[in-house]
Specification:
2 copies of one chain form a homodimer.
Chain A (H helix, E strand, L loop, with lengths): L1 H17 L5 H18 L1 H8 L13 H22 L7 H19 L9 H15 L9 H11 L5
Helix pairs in contact in A: 1-2, 1-4, 2-3, 2-4, 2-5, 2-6, 5-6
């Protein structure tokens, strides 16, 4: 479980590093694209990480699982903090939860074959993330972020 | 699996029926509140219904599982059709997927104890659904929909 968390955190951190010099809104979108890419490439790990496999088990509030969660979202938290420091958007806890839910929900549905009726799930995901960012008051990421992400991801191959 | 789908569909249909005379935006919010309530009350069924338990299994596009999904969302689809017929909002497939993802993702995270850091998850959920509806161009539901839903839900007790 912790190893899977770590691999997802590596994926989001690598995307954030590649977009380190990009505006924070572009970086935030790139991180959510990495989250989707990892989820679609590792659907069983995705389900393992984000659903309770042990009925009644809840991660302790300060335990290692929660630390691992923090790592996954560090790049997003940092981008959000940069944007709100510049006066754009709302990174309060409820809004952050809603943003996470928006892209997490899409990845869960798509990875579990529940969005097979969409013609172009990648475009629908990007549009959904952009709407969610916009609804939270964040600036719209550049139009070519997905193209740049896909090119970078294809170049680096499929890491384990 | 089909029985769990059916119980969730019953829950969303009952909420839609109670809000049958309300404006479609209010009814749509009430249906998402019923979806959350059912998910929090039946977390194991929620995970069973919405994650692939059989690695590599995908529901056939015209099979009974997909019919059951359609039932769950019939009240939302109808509310969306009413609103778009009146000139408000976008109920194209990609936007519908994004809306579903937004509230589904929140319920999945909350039911799996991943939002324990929120002070008031019910309020955060309501706000997230309102932002998602607004970002899709739909009118804002009335301010008291959640209060009316909660009162109705408390009155009818906890059905099996």
């Amino acid at each position: 479980l912790l190893a899977s968390y770590g691999r997802l955190a590596d994926a989001t951190a690598a995307a954030a590093a590649h977009f380190a010099d990009a505006p924070p809104a572009d970086r935030a979108l790139a991180v959510t694209l990495a989250y989707r890419r990892w989820g679609l490439d590792h659907p069983n790990e995705l389900n393992l990480v984000f659903t309770d496999q042990l009925p009644g088990y809840a991660a302790p509030a300060d335990g290692p699982t929660v630390d691992a969660q923090v790592e996954i979202f560090r790049p997003l938290t940092e981008a959000g903090a940069e944007l709100t420091a510049a006066g754009a958007g709302d990174d309060s806890d409820p809004v952050r939860a809603g943003l996470w839910a928006a892209f997490h929900g899409f990845v869960m549905l798509e990875a579990n074959h529940l969005l097979v009726w969409l013609d172009d799930p990648a475009a629908a995901y990007e549009a959904a993330v952009r709407r969610a960012l916009g609804a939270a008051g964040f600036p719209d990421p550049a139009p070519d972020v997905r193209r740049r992400f896909d090119r970078w991801h294809a170049r680096r191959g499929a890491p384990a």
